[in-house]
Amino acid sequence: MDNLSVMSIRIDHRTNSVSKVQEILTKNGDMILGRFGIHDPEEVNTGLITLNLRADMKKINDMMQELDSLEGVKVNHMQV
């Protein structure tokens, strides 16, 4: 069964990690319903992406593991 959920991705070193994060999100674009990204104006190299997802937990966990493996990237997930 597909789950509705929310994922937040914090990127502490945007210049180093952002292209790989974008690649992972593009690869998993079929499960992303919505995406909102901002950077912290006080911390120029920090960004936050919020995703609304619909997918089975295996696909979500696989994407989370890929993102978590990147330096400076922290991921949180919540089912709704």
UniProtKB/TrEMBL annotation:
Record organism: Caminicella sporogenes DSM 14501
InterPro entries assigned to the protein according to its UniProt record, in alphabetical order: Acetolactate_synth/TF_NikR_C, ACT-like_dom_sf, FeFe-hyd_TM1266
Pfam family, one: TM1266-like
SUPFAM superfamilies the record matches: ACT-like (SSF55021)
Gene3D superfamilies per UniProt: ACT-like. Chain A, domain 2
Name this protein carries in UniProt: ACT domain-containing protein
